[in-house]
From TrEMBL:
<protein>
    <recommendedName>
        <fullName>EF-hand domain-containing protein</fullName>
    </recommendedName>
</protein>
<feature type="domain" description="EF-hand">
    <location>
        <begin position="19"/>
        <end position="54"/>
    </location>
</feature>
<feature type="domain" description="EF-hand">
    <location>
        <begin position="55"/>
        <end position="90"/>
    </location>
</feature>
<dbReference type="InterPro" id="IPR018247">
    <property type="entry name" value="EF_Hand_1_Ca_BS"/>
</dbReference>
<dbReference type="GO" id="GO:0005509">
    <property type="term" value="F:calcium ion binding"/>
</dbReference>
<dbReference type="InterPro" id="IPR011992">
    <property type="entry name" value="EF-hand-dom_pair"/>
</dbReference>
<dbReference type="Pfam" id="PF13499">
    <property type="entry name" value="EF-hand_7"/>
</dbReference>
<dbReference type="InterPro" id="IPR002048">
    <property type="entry name" value="EF_hand_dom"/>
</dbReference>
<keyword id="KW-0106">Calcium</keyword>
Amino acid sequence: MMGHLPFFPRMKKKSIIASTVTELKDLLRSFDTNGDGRLNHAELKNAFEKLGSMAPQLRALQALLDADENGDGCINEHELDKLLEFTVKHGHLVVLPEKQS
């Protein structure tokens, strides 16, 4: 075994890199295609497809299980930080460290 779970294969060699957390949150918000202020499973699946996941439907389900604190099946604005943590943890999004003056 190669040290990762086969149920969630590694992503394709593609990450989105941003200089601020705000940029990444705005990117995640941009996947809200129906404009209701929440990310549902289909929107998350689309997001993970665009972010290079090899198993976007499974990654979306895992993201919901991890970040959907109120259990409504969607990621709302309050839960966006948790989703951001999830996407960074799994290598889909990268925040560059702030430059020291």
